[in-house]
Amino acid sequence: MPRKKSLDRRTYLKYTGAVSLPALVAGCGDEGPGETEEDEEEDGDVDDEDVDDEAWEGVDEFYFEGRIAAWTGIEPEIIAGVDNPDLVLFEGQEYDFRWINEDGAVHNIAMHDENEDVVDDYATEGMGDEGEEQTLENVVASEEMGTYICEFHPTTQVGDLEVITN
Fold first, then answer.
1. CA-CA distance, 105 to 136, in Å (whole number)?
2. What sign for the dihedral angle of Cα 78, 64, 116, 57?
3. Could you give the residue ranges of the DSSP H alpha helices within the chain?
4. What's the rounded Cα separation, in Å, for the pair 149 and 70?
5. Please, which residues have CB within 8 angstroms of residue 54's CB and are 6 or more apart in sequence?
6. Angle at the Cα of 71 (from 29 to 95), degrees rounded to 5?
7. Which of 35, 109, 113, 152 has its CA 20 to 30 A from that of 140?
8. 107 in helix, strand or coil?
9. What whole-number distance in Å separates Cα of residue 1 and Cα of residue 8?
10. Cα-trace Rg, the chain
11. Helices in 44-154 by DSSP H: which ranges?
């Protein structure tokens, strides 16, 4: 069974207001010995049951800036300004993945499974014109999906997908 990805902790906390300043000041955070909140944000994931599904309901398009360094979220607001944001999808729902080429390098976007194979032919051709936009349309979310990725820059332009099943 494909592994499911969770929402990035930093993004989750930013948009849900789940952290209170008094708890952090009082040292009541959940960091382990020698670990800081920043360290945990970089390497920790929010448990699946902590994902705020309602924040993702009604989202049917994702818009990114494509650069060799990362996919940077533009829309919806929940991903704005976040590099390679983790995305929450609902199984069976259709999505569009739109992006603009910000650096003139060749990029594409594809949906990969846990074996790094393209899911259901959801991949675009490479495009290298700065300022040009491309959309991968009518992507039906399925639990096989694990990442969205630029196949030309797979180590830097890759984000996790969590597919919520019915």
1. 18
2. positive
3. 9-16, 21-25, 37-43, 53-56
4. 10
5. none
6. 95
7. 152
8. strand
9. 21
10. 16
11. 53-56
* Range 112-130 burial, b when 16+ CB lie within 10 A, else e: bbeeeeebeebbbeebeee
Q: State the average pLDDT over residues 114-136.
A: 97
Question: Looking at the predicted structure, is the pLDDT value of residue 112 above 90?
Answer: yes
Tokens representing 29 are: 């955070």
Tokens of 110: 């594809």
Per-residue model confidence as pLDDT tens digits over 17-50: 333 333 333 444 444 444 444 443 343 343 445 6
Q: Which pLDDT tens digit goes with each residue over 61-83?
A: 999 999 999 999 999 999 999 99
Which stretches of the chain are assigned E, i.e. beta strand?
61-67, 70-75, 87-90, 94-101, 110-112, 118-123, 133-140, 147-149, 158-164
The rounded distance, in Å, linking the Cα atoms of 103 and 137 is: 23
Tokens of 122: 């959801």
Among the listed residues 50, 63, 43, the one whose alpha carbon sits nearest the alpha carbon of residue 15: 50
